[in-house]
């Protein structure tokens, strides 16, 4: 963005009425001393707002580019050949008679994607003659210029003689209202882009990336990276990769669901439940509830079969392998991006200390073992004590979550009795749906309420630790947010999966909470439908809520700002035409990017990844929901970044940070939880044991699976004498879900041999499943290298050529100097 005189690299915003005049004057005086040029201009929409336009001259850019080890173009790349192709790592553009793929990005519509294909090296003023400087105005890109200015703003003092520095602190104490690099211009044009071209990179991004009409197109990652920086570019690259990998997972999940749908009516277990008109089940509560017939739960049993069928085990194994393949191939994709974007050696060269860390520990210095320069350091005792306080805070917040889950459990126990004895027949008949549904809704409201608290607590605890660098701060904050929200989101799901109905007891001897409320028990067709309902409701509503908060809320805020601006609510001019406003005034009326950067964006997707993999055995449609959400999420985030947010500071990064380790941890946890879901929550193992040990196929040859399950429902129900109920005058027998001896046996209500066979089979399945899947995962991870071989060859080759070119360039420069000095000597000789 230019004002007609100089290129504007950064905008600072302050209120004229702010009392922090002295700090601001000192800060701006020191900025000028660092070589920056400042110009002030009042806002056209608010008389109390003043803009400070920051420009970095050529000498200042060169000085800090050298300090920050920014890599700049060195010389045009030389293509080298191999036996297989004319160029290594370069794709030939082959014209084909085949129709154009609609998914591909139209490179002809993106002429600005063609970047100068050059080698790069850390910038040095002493070797400036080595670099390709055709035009000083365009040598440093807009994002690089903004990054240099941000570096200066972060390290400039605002109080003379004191170690108080950085624009972040000035924003915190309201000396400045905002600080941001300006957008390059408007994102819309009166003329079509196909005929008149793009006005600027922002317009190009909107037309070829952020519009909803091109949701099926590939993302222009190079252009995203050039405009928003490598860190945001990597986020969208990862999000696009994750979304693409969800396609096969969603297809397999749909096939598993359709298999359950088509076999729902023919399922032997469902048939037996629907035909059990004479099977009397025991009362669901001990005071007001009456016995009921098993056939009343016919619909419940059929719905359960949708998610608890023979395809469940296969899908759980497939998703565990899918998670490994996704992460391994992402490593390869990341390696290609870091090479193409010149980030291979960046982390070692450019990791900077946080200004807050420097200010806190400036009096304590030690020599950096890598650079050999003195730098502030944090004593181990201080770091340990702060870490212990932080860990204690984390455990306190997690205990708060578990308390909330316990409260939901108590509510479910109370609601269970109320719904089971309800006067309305429909509710009484479907009391389990009513209990689960209301419990999930209350749990969702608690989750969203606690999320607000977690963010503030995580922010305080992370600042208390005083991380050394920005990446350490972000990783520490991200880990806390993930732990808080993961426990908050999944604790109730873990309860339903592994604890619901496990400790209920039996009729006549039910276990009670506080000797008052009877613990919940599973439906005769299993607990999996409760788990499925829990996951489906939370996943669906959470995605809707997140999408509203990400786009709907900023849209409302920006609409309100425009409305105030039109009315002159800020005391400024009543501007009818928004196009008359300068770009910095337009950007000021946009919403700032989240204070925590991309943490919220990654956190949403990583939690979704957990939902997609951890309990996928109970909800095979989770990958499909995730895929549909992510297709919307990519364009929603793109639209938000391009149109609704101020331009964020273009930051660099080599990977997705701590999130990769979290994803790997989720992949490991997913194997364990799916093994337990299949073995404990679902009825797969009891059906398997019955079919091969107790069913009609026990001593016969091969039969259809449903034939082997004939009589399973009767085998899984035990008998209870209603006369044994206390405070109830009832007679006869009822059935309940368990493997216990009948009341007329020598040891009534003791576990039968079938119970121990099922328990042994469950444990054996968990061990075999985990070892099998972990073995396959490890083998796949071993087979897939983290970096493609051709990329390794290209990097070695370019490193070799780089050394040669540096030597040749230096030699050429020396020869020119000698000739120049020789002519001067000859001219001066009398």
Automatic annotation (TrEMBL):
Membrane topology label: Multi-pass membrane protein
Limits of the Anoctamin transmembrane domain: 224-798
Domain Anoctamin dimerisation positions: 2-221
Gene Ontology, cellular component aspect: plasma membrane
One MF annotation (Gene Ontology) recorded for this entry: protein dimerization activity
Keyword list, A-Z: Cell membrane, Glycoprotein, Membrane, Transmembrane, Transmembrane helix
A matching Pfam family: Anoct_dimer
Highest rank taxon of the organism: Eukaryota
InterPro entries in UniProt: Anoct_dimer (IPR032394), Anoctamin (IPR007632), Anoctamin_TM (IPR049452)
Residue ranges crossing the lipid bilayer per the database entry: 235-262, 312-330, 387-414, 482-505, 606-628, 656-680, 755-774
Record localization: Cell membrane; Membrane
Family: Belongs to the anoctamin family.
Protein name: Anoctamin
Organism: Gouania willdenowi (Blunt-snouted clingfish)
Lineage, top ranks: Eukaryota, Metazoa, Chordata, Craniata, Vertebrata
Gene designation per UniProt: ano3
């Amino acid at each position: 963005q230019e004002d007609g005189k100089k290129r504007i690299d950064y905008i600072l915003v302050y209120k004229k009425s702010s009392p922090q005049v002295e700090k601001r004057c000192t800060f701006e005086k020191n900025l000028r001393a660092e070589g920056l040029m400042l110009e002030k201009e009042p806002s056209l929409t608010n008389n109390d707002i003043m803009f400070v336009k920051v420009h970095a001259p050529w000498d200042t850019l060169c000085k800090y580019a050298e300090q920050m080890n920014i890599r700049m173009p060195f010389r045009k790349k030389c293509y080298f050949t191999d036996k297989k192709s004319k160029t290594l790592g370069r794709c030939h553009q082959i014209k084909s008679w085949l129709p154009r793929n609609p998914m591909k990005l139209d490179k002809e519509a993106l002429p600005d994607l063609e970047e100068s294909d050059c080698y790069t090296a850390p910038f040095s003023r002493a070797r400036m003659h080595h670099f390709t400087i055709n035009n000083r105005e365009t040598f440093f890109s807009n994002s690089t210029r903004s990054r240099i200015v941000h570096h200066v703003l972060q390290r400039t003092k605002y109080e003379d003689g004191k170690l108080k520095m950085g624009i972040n602190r000035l924003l915190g104490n309201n000396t400045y209202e905002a600080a941001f690099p300006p957008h390059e211009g408007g994102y819309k044009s009166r003329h079509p882009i196909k005929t008149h071209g793009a006005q600027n990179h922002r317009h190009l991004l909107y037309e070829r990336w952020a519009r909803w009409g091109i949701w099926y197109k590939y993302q222009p990652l190079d252009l995203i990276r050039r405009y928003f920086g490598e860190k945001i570019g990597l986020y969208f690259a990862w999000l696009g990769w994750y979304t693409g990998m969800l396609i096969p997972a969603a297809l397999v999940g749909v096939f598993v669901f359709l298999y359950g749908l088509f076999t729902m009516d023919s399922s032997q277990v469902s048939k037996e439940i629907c035909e059990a008109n004479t099977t009397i089940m025991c009362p669901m509560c001990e005071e007001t509830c009456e016995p009921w017939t098993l056939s009343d739960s016919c619909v419940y049993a059929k719905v359960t079969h949708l998610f608890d069928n023979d395809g469940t085990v296969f899908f759980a194994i497939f998703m565990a392998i899918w998670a490994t393949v996704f992460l391994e191939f992402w490593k390869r994709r990341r390696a290609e991006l870091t090479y193409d974007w010149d980030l291979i050696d960046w982390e070692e060269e450019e990791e900077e200390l946080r200004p807050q860390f420097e200010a806190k520990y400036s009096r304590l210095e030690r020599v950096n073992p890598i650079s050999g320069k003195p730098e502030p350091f944090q004593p181990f005792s201080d770091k340990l004590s702060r870490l212990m306080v932080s860990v204690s805070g984390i455990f306190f917040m997690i205990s708060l979550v578990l308390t909330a889950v316990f409260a939901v459990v108590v509510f479910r126990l109370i609601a269970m009795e109320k719904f089971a004895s309800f006067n309305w027949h429909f509710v009484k008949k479907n009391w389990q749906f009513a209990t689960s549904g209301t419990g999930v809704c209350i749990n969702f409201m608690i989750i969203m309420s606690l999320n607000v608290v977690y963010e503030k607590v995580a922010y305080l605890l992370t600042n208390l630790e005083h991380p050394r660098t920005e990446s350490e701060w972000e990783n520490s904050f991200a880990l806390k947010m993930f732990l808080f929200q993961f426990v908050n989101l999944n604790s109730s799901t873990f309860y339903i999966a592994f604890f619901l109905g496990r400790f209920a007891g039996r009729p006549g001897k039910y276990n009670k909470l506080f000797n008052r409320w009877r613990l919940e028990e599973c439906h005769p067709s299993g607990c999996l439908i409760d788990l499925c309902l829990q996951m489906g409701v939370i996943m669906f509503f959470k995605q809707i809520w997140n999408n509203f908060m990400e786009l709907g809320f900023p849209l409302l805020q920006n609409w309100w700002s425009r409305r105030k601006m039109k009315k002159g609510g800020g005391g400024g001019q009543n501007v009818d035409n928004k196009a008359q406003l300068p770009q910095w005034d337009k950007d000021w009326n946009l919403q700032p990017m989240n204070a925590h950067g991309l943490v919220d964006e990654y956190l949403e997707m990583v939690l979704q990844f957990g939902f997609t993999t951890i309990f996928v055995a109970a909800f095979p449609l989770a990958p499909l929901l995730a895929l549909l959400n992510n297709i919307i999420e990519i364009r929603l985030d793109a639209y938000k970044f391009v149109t609704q947010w101020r331009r964020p500071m273009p930051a660099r990064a080599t990977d997705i940070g701590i999130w990769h380790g979290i994803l790997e941890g989720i992949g490991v946890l997913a194997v364990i939880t799916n093994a337990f879901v299949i073995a404990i929550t679902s009825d797969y193992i009891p059906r398997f044991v019955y079919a091969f040990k107790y069913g009609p196929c026990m001593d016969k040859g091969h039969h259809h699976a449903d034939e082997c399950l004939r009589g399973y429902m009767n085998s899984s129900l035990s008998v209870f004498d209603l006369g044994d109920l206390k405070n109830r005058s009832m007679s006869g027998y009822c059935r309940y879900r368990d493997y216990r001896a009948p009341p007329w046996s020598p040891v009534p209500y003791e576990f039968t041999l079938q119970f121990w066979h099922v328990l042994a089979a469950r444990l054996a399945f968990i061990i075999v499943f985990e070892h099998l899947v972990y073995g396959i995962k490890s083998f796949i991870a071993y087979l897939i290298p983290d970096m493609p071989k051709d990329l390794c060859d290209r990097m070695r080759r370019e490193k070799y050529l780089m050394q040669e070119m540096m030597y040749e360039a230096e030699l050429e420069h020396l020869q020119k100097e000698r000739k120049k000095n020789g002519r001067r000597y000859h001219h001066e000789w009398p």
